[in-house]
Amino acid sequence: MGELINRGYTKPLHVNPLKLSQPMGATLAFLGVKNCMPLMHGAQGCASFTKVLFTRHFKDPVPIQTTAVNDITAIIDGGELSISEAISNITKKVAPELIGLFTTGLTEIKGDDINGISSLLKEKHTIVYVNTPDFEGGLESGWANVATNIIKQLAGKEGEVDKRKALLIPNVNLTPIEVEKIKESLETLGLKAYALPDLSDSLDGHLGVKQGALSGGGISVEEIKKLGNAGVVISVGSSVKECALSFKERFEDTVVLHFDSLQGLVASDEFYEKVLGYLGVSDVNVSVKKWRSRLQDMLLDTHFTLGKAKVITADEPDSAYAISNALMEAGAKVEAFISQKSEISGKFQCPVRVGDFEDLEQSIEGDTSLLISNFHIERIAHKYHKAFLIRGFPNYEQVGANLRNNVLYEGSCAFLSECSNLL
């Protein structure tokens, strides 16, 4: 099991931060709902920073609105006025099907009652409210909190349980195309798959008609309201496991299938084994078998380079866990850095440490072959003359990050070959 390592010192701050905040994760999650208006309850700069980061990452406009709390309203307003005015101003121009209201550190410290405020506005608007202070948690928990609250506040049951209806709850690290590939894999097995949140239809890089003030795709509010009769809920990533369990609490007849990762041979085998077991069938189509054989061959082919490589990966916990396992299957020696402690921390099969880029830089040794992290790893890699692979948020360097598939048999082949070719 993973060993949380400490090199003999601790520090009370992030020097060169690795982690992103809860409100940023919440923003992404609401963008996975069709015609949604993410509304960040906080200062204007918080929303601006989030908008710029995701717009540069996805190379597409990212709609987000703010209540623009300032030093005056922070003192005299309990939040109701700024929220209602923001919604009123925006709905004069557009008609969102959902308003995703979430907090920041400033408004959480103020103690604004967004539950009470939302209840006053729900007669006119469909609102999901979420508490996402940025002084705790991170990108993964912000995303997961939104998914959980959408289920609690919107999902209902319509008709008998449909065994062929599947709800996929992906973690925030999965790219839009990865979500699409998982849905397609479920549908080839005979399931009708819905993802919540679903970035595969909103931030997948498709050419829209025009820039909009609302999210351009994703699961619809009507579809969310009918999710209660799903026969199976499939969660991918430790950070969203509780989302699936909260769905099970509300709709007891559903079956929960959880996967910590879908990257690599072992994880992909587990996926098909559990889904086939749920469906009561024993075989998959020829295409799946072919890709499994290709991945086996890729493990052999890349073992000559990855088998002697020392790799340092640094990302959100679920992503670092998936990457580490996939590399170790090919024989790599991996050390992982994660942005914060998580339930997945104890499941790592390699040394893992909660830290930042300063900690990562101090761990680089002469025999380190490859660094894997977000865009900010580039400067460190050039400094130490190491190969690097960009994963996670943000990725300002490359186009097509939203179209990169590294899950299941096919995506795992692409990941291993990319790492091996770099070396």
Reconstruct the topology from this structure:
Elements: E1 3-4, H1 22-30, E2 36-41, H2 44-58, E3 65-66, H3 73-76, H4 80-91, E4 98-103, H5 105-110, H6 114-121, E5 127-130, H7 139-154, E6 162-170, H8 176-188, E7 192-195, H9 221-225, E8 230-236, H10 241-250, E9 255-259, H11 265-279, H12 286-306, E10 310-315, H13 317-329, E11 333-338, E12 351-354, H14 357-363, E13 368-373, H15 377-384, E14 387-390, H16 408-422
Parallel strand pairs: 1-12, 2-3, 2-4, 4-5, 6-7, 6-8, 8-9, 10-11, 10-13, 11-12, 13-14
Helix pairs in contact: 1-7, 7-10, 12-16
Indicate the proportion of strand residues. Answer: 15-25%
Mean pLDDT: 93
Give me the number of helical elements: 16
Structural class: alpha/beta
Order of helices and strands: EHEHEHHEHHEHEHEHEHEHHEHEEHEHEH
CATH architecture of the largest domain: 3-Layer(aba) Sandwich
Q: Mind summarizing the main beta sheet? A: 6 strands, parallel
Poorly predicted ranges (pLDDT <50, ≥5 residues)? none
C-alpha Rg, in Å? 22 Å
Q: Strand order across the biggest sheet?
A: 1-12-11-10-13-14
- Write out the CATH superfamily name of the largest domain: Nitrogenase molybdenum iron protein domain
Calculate the terminal CA-CA distance, rounded to whole Å: 27 Å
Number of structural domains: 3
Helix proportion range: 40-55%
The geometry reads as globular
Per DSSP E runs of 2 or more residues, the count of β-strands stands at 14
CATH class annotation of the largest domain: Alpha Beta
